[in-house]
Design a protein that fits this description.
This protein is an all-alpha fold and 376 residues long. The chain folds into two domains: 2-195 and 275-375, no CATH class; 196-274, no CATH class. The chain has helices spanning 2-13, 29-37, 41-58, 63-90, 103-117, 122-135, 151-159, 177-190, 198-222, 237-245, 254-271, 283-287, 289-312, 340-367, and strands at 98-101, 161-163, 170-173.
Length: 376
């Protein structure tokens, strides 16, 4: 949750918004790594959301109750993505001529899909997830145009892109649902491993983490399957390594998911012995992840507006609704933005400022049992 806010702070404050941080012709090491480390966020969120769904059954929730909760919470997340996240997070306006379906959208629809899958035997759910993750890159060459009038559906499911439902309206399918649905399903199956005795559990965590990381290195080195963007030798060893690590995120390739989930499972195996004291404050954000997400975006966006007013006397570009999204080049002043150290300082300030708010809400959720609180 903390690392995610770094990427969003960069989206609003970096002076390097005119190009993709993974563009090896334009990026520099600190910027590339700042972007790369945040790649771990979405896969771990969605994978562990499936794990949490499984574990809720072990706490007394019936399959039918779990299905209903996943269905309603999933639809609630989709609604939040199209309203709160869009209007009060990314774009600061209520003009719905342009909207985006990004991470909360993907989590929401994955929960809707899992609400049906949970009625199947767990091994089937796990197999479904693994097969979707492993095979979806076979369809990288399928273009929306081949679907005819249903091309918009393929954009939502796999290819991504801009959908134009009517003249003057646009929707960016930023997080195609395949294979995110499979990631959550696989995470649901993974939950059963957490019920094992601690020593055996850690062996499984280390083993799976090492397997995923090893498969990533092997398949990436072969450069044959698993990612639509092959790596290639670059101007020096460091940039060649960056090319090797620069996997496709939209949609997340098989190699992207192996690269992120493998180390995440290894970290989980280490943390399974207990959270170090210096990391314990971070648990506050993990106890209220949706609340934190819904609050941190308006805070970062509002700070960007304030900084722009102080520097330029205006900030109209932070309220615009261009077809490319809130950071479209040409709307901002050409000299807008701050160096990476400033971005990091703003990020740390945002996290520290949100800590007491999240701690308060975590205490509210711990002491109260109203059903609506489970949806935040």
């Amino acid at each position: 949750m903390v690392i995610m806010a770094l990427d969003h702070t960069r989206d609003f404050f970096s002076k390097d918004l005119a190009f993709d941080p993974s563009d090896l012709d334009k990026t520099y090491p600190a910027l590339f790594l700042t972007r790369w480390i945040t790649h771990f966020c979405a896969p771990v969120f969605i994978f562990l959301a499936g794990t949490g769904a499984f574990l809720s059954v072990t706490r007394g929730k019936s399959t039918k109750e779990l299905s209903w909760f996943l269905l309603t919470r999933g639809l609630w997340l989709v609604l939040l993505e199209l309203t709160w996240v869009r209007c009060l997070g990314w774009q600061f306006n209520f003009d719905f001529h342009f909207a985006m379906g990004i991470v909360i959208w993907a989590i929401g629809w994955s929960m809707v899909a899992l609400s049906g899958l949970v009625f199947l035997p767990l091994r089937w759910v796990t197999t479904f997830g693994i097969l979707m993750i492993a095979s979806h890159n076979l369809f990288d060459y399928v273009k929306p145009e081949s679907w005819g009038s249903l091309g918009w559906l393929w954009k939502i499911l796999h290819s991504g892109g801009i959908i134009v439902p009517a003249e003057g309206y646009g929707f960016a399918a930023g997080y195609p649902l395949i294979p995110w649905i499979g990631v959550m399903a696989a995470g649901c199956g993974f939950g059963s491993l957490l019920l094992r005795e601690s020593v055996e559990r850690r062996k499984w965590l280390f083993g799976l983490g090492a397997l995923f990381a090893g498969l990533f290195v092997l398949l990436r080195a072969l450069n044959v399957y698993g990612d639509p963007d092959p790596w290639s030798p670059q101007r020096n060893t460091l940039y060649t390594l960056f090319s090797f690590l620069n996997c496709h995120k939209y949609p997340p390739s098989l190699l992207y998911l192996l690269m992120t989930l493998g180390p995440a499972l290894l970290a989980l195996a280490v943390l399974d012995r207990g959270t170090p004291r210096w990391l314990k404050p971070v648990l506050v954000f993990g106890r209220v992840p949706l609340f934190y997400y819904l609050v941190h975006l308006p805070v970062i966006h509002g700070l960007a507006v304030l900084a722009s007013y102080l520097r330029y006397g205006e900030a109209n570009w932070w309220f615009a609704n261009p077809s490319e999204g809130p950071n479209a080049p040409g709307l901002r002043p050409s000299d807008y933005g701050y160096s990476l150290p400033i971005v990091y300082l703003v990020w740390l300030g945002v996290v520290l400022a949100l800590y007491p708010v999240c701690r308060w809400f975590a205490e509210v959720k711990r002491h109260r049992r109203e059903r609506w609180l489970s949806y935040l």
